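agent> Task received from the user: take the single chain below, predict its 3D structure, and emit structure tokens. No templates, no multimer pairing.
agent> Plan: (1) validate residues, (2) run structure prediction, (3) serialize to tokens, (4) report one or two observations.
agent> Step 1 OK, no nonstandard residues flagged.
tool_call: predict_structure(input=
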Amino acid sequence: MALMNWNAHFVTGISIVDEQHQHLVRLINQSAPVLALSYARNPDKAESLLAELTHYAIYHFQNEHELMAQHGIDPRHHQHHLKSHGEFATTVAAMKEMYQRGEEITGGKLLSFLANWLVFHILGEDQAMARQIHAISRGMKPVDAYDSAEGYRNDPKQEALTQALVDLYALMTEQNRSLLELNHELREHREHLAELVSQRTHELEIARDAAEAANRAKSRFIANLSHEIRTPMNSIVSLGWILHEKIIDPEQREKLQQMSGATQQLLSVINDLLDISRIESEQLKLETLDFSPHRMIEQLIADHKGRALQKGIAFQVKLPEKLPLLLHGDPIRIGQIIGNFVSNAIKFTNQGEVTLSLQQKPGHRPDRTLLHFAVRDSGSGIAEEFQERLFQPFEQGDVSSRRKHGGTGLGLAICKRLSDMMGGEIGVSSTLGEGSIFWFEIELTVVAAAATSPDSKAPDQSSEVSAPATIHWQRINEALRRLERLLAEDDIQALTLWRDMADQFHPALGSDAVRLEGEIKRYAFDGALLVIRSILAKLPNDQVDKGNRTDA
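)
tool_result: status=success, residues=552
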């Protein structure tokens, strides 16, 4: 925005005078952004502009004096003009010195003076000089030209109009100057804020990187520590199982059962810590294989039916009429999510029932299916304000619930992370006092060689599973390799994987499967690891490469 604007009122009709006046207007406008600030803010540029203004004033006044002498202007006007120029030069020099010292005067006031003086000088002195020069050029005597010009300037109407124009331009100039100052302050404030935001963002990024590095280090430490604790704990479980088989005394067997229950509870806590630390440190990897959804649900029933019976609540399972015999995915992690839902439902339900339901929908491709698991309970329900935090680490419904039912508050957080890793969705709907529904939805590939079961009634824990006529050696090999990794890490999930794949292991491995099952069920993971490695060493490569073969 310009501090001053050139217009027709300023035109004198003398080319050199008008050109110099326009140059002065441009010079004042160029000076405004600098002189509107204190001298100390930009002394070099301010000094250069002030020097140019002083030089211009001297040059312009000399040109006007030469013009007046050339046309023989009346001495009275010449003397008045000289006085006006002298007063201007003296005032500007004084104000410039005060501005440079940072005293009362500011660059803004100096600008206002220059702009106001220019308007008054052009409309007053220079217009009177121009009228005399034009009159003398038309043949009028200098003394008559002076009287005519002064009479015109002293006319009350013209004097009032001139003063009104001067006042108007002075007001506009002051408003423009104030606006320039405000715009400059705003720009500086914005630049300062941008600098602060950039600095703060950089500090936050450094803090975030440090926090993430510390979190990863913490997760690695917990993972290593959990592994070191879990190894001897599995040995304790194994020894307890052996003693339980050999001891006959009822009192001692009861104590062993109590010890086994406490050990299993501790192992559950350790497994939760290990899982969440592996997820946070990006060490937990999904391993997909072909699995039977029926077998997985049968195992869920076997794992949780006893606890439901102990509490006197019903445990129901509702499956769709048709369900694929084999799906391709991670049965351990899917079973872990559903098992956590069922375990929590039984834990928080004192009467009524817990229902596990599965709905099957078409997937995005013909070879895929969308499974929607839901676990409904008739428990105490969850207040709405707690529901959003349930899937965050170390969160439970409320403090009293944690004291009453125990737990680390990691289970649902692990479920959420696992669901995200598998591309699934997870959620909860609950009403306080009416129970809850936890659901999990995932899309899986249907194994092409597996036919759909004609009838999917709720599986029974005691039902026999017939041996498959076709042995899928590639799947057997993949499952054995994963089982080997779990055993090497002393991961209790090895037992779950064995249960899910037992109906495929036994017909393929024969007596080796019996030996392996015995070691795993006794939690003798070191012994199981030796057995499985001997199996892998004996597994014919041509059978693995062919993928499938049909037994005679």
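agent> Step 4: summary for the user.
The first strand starts at residue 289 and ends at 291.
agent> Done.
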